[in-house]
């Protein structure tokens, strides 16, 4: 009777071997890169006592582009550090590029989700304020309580989702509002994991 095979640890593949398999990158290497880069970025920001460093990290996508972060982090689930960070940067990117729309949807959602509005803290809910809140949320990742930053982002998503469903017509608006609510739930879970040292 043959002994059962022992499980093998995943190994990094040679680029030539990957090409022969039709793969352009090593999925194990990509997984490590996502988690290591997210941990390094978080450590850099939290270890810095210089507000200029935090400001630069907040505006990271202004410099490198959201697509660059997406290549490394977007494939990771929200209950991981790179996945949670990517969602925060994605939220800031949207608010920064569409502040009037974000403010309109946020303002419309306040009456439906007053408690979330209080947590998110965009007051009054104008374009400048939603941009400020998006920056504050990311700054809180590096110089505040990461869990609170995640919860503020979740609350912001809930308010915008409610507003979008109210002021924007069509099935697509309902679907995108649903996606925002889903993201809010994911960020809330990530906050809970961070508080128990399980967001890695």
Main sheet properties: none
User: Structurally, how many domains make up the residues?
Assistant: 1
End-to-end distance, in Å?
41 Å
Q: Name the helix and strand elements from N-terminus to C-terminus, one letter apiece.
A: HHHHHHHHHHH
Structural class: mainly alpha
**Average residue pLDDT:** 88
- What percentage of amino acids are in beta strands? under 5%
Rounded to an integer, what's the Rg over CA atoms?
19 Å
Number of H- or I-type helical stretches:
11
Helix content: over 70%
By oligomeric state, this entry counts as: single chain
Count of DSSP E strands? 0
In the predicted model, the low-confidence regions spanning at least 5 consecutive residues are 1-18
Shape: globular
Structure overview:
- It is globular, with a radius of gyration of 19 Å.
- The longest helix has 25 residues, at 171-195.
- The chain has one domain.
- The chain is built from 11 helices and no strands.
- Helices cover 74% and strands 0% of the residues.
- With 200 residues, it is mainly alpha-helical.
Describe the structure in brief.
The protein has 200 residues and is mainly alpha-helical.
What attributes does this structure have?
200 residues; 11 helices; disordered N terminus
Describe the secondary-structure layout.
Blueprint (H helix, E strand, L loop, with lengths): L14 H6 L6 H21 L3 H8 L1 H5 L1 H8 L7 H17 L1 H11 L4 H7 L6 H17 L2 H22 L3 H25 L5
Helix pairs in contact: 3-9, 5-6, 6-7, 6-9, 7-9, 7-10, 8-10, 9-10, 10-11
């Amino acid at each position: 009777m043959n002994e059962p095979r022992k499980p093998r640890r995943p190994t990094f593949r040679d680029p030539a071997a990957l090409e022969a398999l039709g793969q352009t990158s090593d999925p194990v290497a990509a997984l490590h890169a996502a988690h290591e880069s997210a941990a390094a970025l978080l450590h850099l920001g939290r270890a810095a006592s210089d507000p200029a460093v935090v400001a630069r990290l907040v505006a990271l996508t202004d410099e490198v582009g959201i697509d660059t972060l997406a290549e490394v982090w977007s494939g990771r689930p929200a209950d991981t550090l790179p996945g949670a960070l990517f969602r925060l940067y994605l939220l800031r990117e949207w608010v920064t590029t569409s502040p009037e729309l974000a403010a309109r949807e946020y303002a419309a959602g306040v009456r439906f989700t007053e408690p979330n509005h209080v947590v998110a803290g965009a007051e009054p809910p104008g374009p400048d304020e939603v941009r400020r809140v998006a920056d504050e949320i990311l700054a809180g990742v590096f110089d505040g309580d990461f869990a609170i930053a995640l919860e503020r982002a979740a609350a912001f998503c809930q308010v915008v989702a409610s507003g979008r469903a109210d002021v924007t017509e069509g099935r697509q608006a309902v679907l995108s509002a649903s996606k925002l609510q889903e993201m809010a739930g994911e960020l809330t879970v990530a906050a809970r994991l961070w508080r128990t040292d399980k967001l890695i």
